[in-house]
Design goal:
Elements: H1 5-8, E1 9-11, H2 14-18, E2 27-32, H3 38-55, E3 59-65, H4 69-76, H5 83-90, H6 99-112, E4 122-127, E5 130-131, E6 134-135, H7 139-150, H8 161-168, H9 191-209, H10 211-219, H11 231-239, H12 246-270, H13 277-300, E7 306-311, H14 312-315, E8 320-324, E9 327-331, H15 334-342, E10 346-356, H16 367-371, E11 378-381, H17 383-390, E12 419-426
Parallel strand pairs: 2-7, 2-10, 3-4, 3-7, 10-12
Antiparallel strand pairs: 1-11, 5-6, 8-9, 11-12
């Protein structure tokens, strides 16, 4: 008997969704098909609460600035401060304005009240410090890394802080919005930037090579072998701001090392003028996301799995493809990188929708058009049964988006998905992502 669509479908619940997650999953990736739709944030929040209370998850990572997210993590951990400030300063891409993100942060802070330190929920950003008009300057992260090392290693092993300051220059020279479209406005391939990449690599090498020393010191008194004064002491104070333990300072140093090198690569790609420039920028970004998520897993390994939430295009197992004018962007997604690194430890749940107010409706021969015939506002689907119900490849088409903020779920890629959630109706997005990008 040919499986029916109803055989593949169950009314949405967090438990129905986790029933599809393979045993041994360390990183559960929940994708959204577009940004700014509160329906997917609500779904994510329901799932995360269930994962925390029933499956031992203690961390979540969003598609947001990895450095800025430290402010949100401190807030959910009980630090003094205002919720509005934590959301405004701790979430990039305008995500702090969404009600679902406010609800998530409030719930995490409430959950953490009174729990033991080892059980508290942690909030992470998986994205680099990147916005749609460009990337942050690498200097702040690089100088914090230098300060961490200068406090623990002999001075002769390190480049002079003065040289780093000179090469970095003012942040504004790195963050010119015009560089996003005009590579000649980018400083990413100047002689100073090239020298800075070399020094960043050397600092990262020192951090990695001396990690056993740092880990032992941070577990104990945290005493270092180097000494610093004046500006270096001020930088060290900034480096551990918002961190509660010496081990947090090591985590922050490794985060700064990844971020500084990632930003320097990204700025170099921004300065490129070849036909692969945009693909290179997408590669750099998803590599940063993958590296951050893998580092989060290492940190959280003893506490439980992690939920990641980002656009489907970042978390999917296949290569990312986005049509842009007459070009087709093509790059290996963060999900494909993590799937290769984690083997069976990576699981991906995709989401999609039917109707978007006021006049965006899927064609009947698309996957979303077929799913729109199901009863109920939200449906969980087993992708293997769904593929069988759809029949031969090509019978159901991929949805062509009404605008560039949405990318339909590819029916040919259902074998690369562990679960699907279909939301019948969403309201038109508010704010930036009424017309943004993934």
């Amino acid at each position: 008997m040919t499986p029916s669509l109803q055989d593949a479908a169950r009314p949405f619940s967090a438990a129905a969704l986790t029933d599809l997650v393979p045993t041994g999953t360390r990183l559960l990736a929940l994708g959204e098909p577009t940004h700014g739709a509160e329906e997917f944030l609500d779904l994510r929040n329901e799932l995360f609460r269930h994962l925390v209370t029933d499956h031992g998850y203690r961390s979540i990572a969003l598609e947001s600035d990895c450095l800025a997210a430290l402010a949100v993590d401190a807030y959910v951990g009980g630090a003094e401060g205002e919720l509005d400030a934590a959301l405004r300063e701790g979430l990039s891409h305008g995500f702090g304005a969404y009600a679902g993100n406010r609800e998530l942060v409030c719930w995490m802070r409430e959950f953490n009240t009174g729990v033991e330190e080892g059980e508290r929920l942690r909030f992470y950003g998986a994205d680099g410090p990147l916005e749609y008009t460009g990337a942050a300057a690498p200097g702040p992260a690089l100088l914090r890394l230098h300060a961490f090392l200068a406090d623990r290693l002999p001075a002769e092993l390190l480049p002079e802080r003065a040289e780093l300051l000179h090469l970095c220059g003012p942040d504004e020279r790195w963050t010119d919005p015009a560089a996003a479209l005009d590579p000649t406005r980018s400083v990413g391939r100047t002689a100073e930037a090239t020298r800075l990449r070399l020094l960043a690599d050397e600092l990262g090498l020192l951090l990695a090579a001396h990690r056993p020393q740092f880990a032992a010191a941070e577990a104990g008194a945290g005493a270092g072998t180097g000494a610093g004064t004046g500006a270096e002491s001020d930088a060290r104070a900034e480096a551990v701001a918002g961190t509660g333990t010496a081990a947090d300072a090591l985590w922050r140093a490794e985060l700064d090392a990844r971020t500084a090198t990632g930003l320097l690569r990204y700025h170099a790609a921004t300065a490129g003028d070849g036909p692969d420039r945009l693909n290179s920028l997408m590669r750099q970004r998803d590599l940063m996301i993958a590296d951050n998520l893998e580092a989060i897993l290492r940190r959280e390994a003893r506490r439980g799995p992690t939920l990641a939430f980002a656009h489907n295009r970042h978390l999917q197992r296949e290569a990312g493809r986005i049509p842009l004018g007459g070009h087709q962007l093509l790059w290996w997604s963060a999900g494909s990188l993590l799937d290769a690194r984690l083997d069976d430890g990576y699981a991906f749940l995709a989401t999609t929708f039917g109707n978007r107010a006021p006049d965006d409706h899927p064609a009947p021969d698309t996957l979303e058009g077929v799913l729109a015939t199901l009863p109920g506002p939200r449906t969980v689907l087993d992708p293997a049964r769904l593929a069988a119900a759809l029949g031969a490849p090509g019978r159901v088409q991929a949805r062509i988006p009404a605008d560039h903020t949405y990318f339909g779920l590819d029916p040919a890629a259902l074998d690369r998905v562990d679960g699907v959630v279909f939301v019948r109706d969403i309201a038109r997005q508010q704010g930036l992502f009424g017309g943004g990008q993934a």
